[in-house]
Amino acid sequence: MGYAIKLTGRNKKNAESLLHEVTLLLEKFKVNYALEGGTLLGIYRENRLLPWDSDVDISILSEELLKMDEVYKELHKSNYRIRIRTFEANDSPFQKGMTRLIKIRKKYFFGLLKGNVCLEIFIKFTDKEHVYWKVADKTMMAPKKFYENYTQIEFLNKHYTIPLLTEEYLTHKYGDWKKPNKNWNASTDELSILKN
């Protein structure tokens, strides 16, 4: 989010490859994930990554983190750079030290350079009725029903996991998601921002 690139040309190809390869690893180690944010919106609405987007987004529920060690090992072996972001303070429902975001990029030239395109895995935390996650300094909230059942969508000859209630979820996040908005900003325009 907020990277100074666009998913066009070589960046687009790299983003498609990154999404493909990382989700194959998640599937190999049975880590349940779903496409998220602009990635979900672009593939669902337009069968493409949005060219004005700047990264690739997926999400996992916090309990899936227990399966991630093998994924990290494989990513390292396959020349990926992984950065894990944690919560720096207790901020209910989040606890200091918990993983909030995983950033993955391809490495080049013996690891000296990182790829332009970042894949972000947002970690979502559940209670009885809601799911919570952080984007920048904002807490997001959505009904738990969006994370209870999933389906598949085909994109570039691969199937990806998406919420069964995708259209309802996109409405929750974006409002009128059918109309493209190239200036949309997650930290200000996201409708799932939890109002204090």
From TrEMBL:
<protein>
    <recommendedName>
        <fullName>LicD/FKTN/FKRP nucleotidyltransferase domain-containing protein</fullName>
    </recommendedName>
</protein>
<dbReference type="GO" id="GO:0009100">
    <property type="term" value="P:glycoprotein metabolic process"/>
</dbReference>
<dbReference type="InterPro" id="IPR007074">
    <property type="entry name" value="LicD/FKTN/FKRP_NTP_transf"/>
</dbReference>
<feature type="domain" description="LicD/FKTN/FKRP nucleotidyltransferase">
    <location>
        <begin position="30"/>
        <end position="97"/>
    </location>
</feature>
<dbReference type="InterPro" id="IPR052613">
    <property type="entry name" value="LicD_transferase"/>
</dbReference>
<dbReference type="Pfam" id="PF04991">
    <property type="entry name" value="LicD"/>
</dbReference>
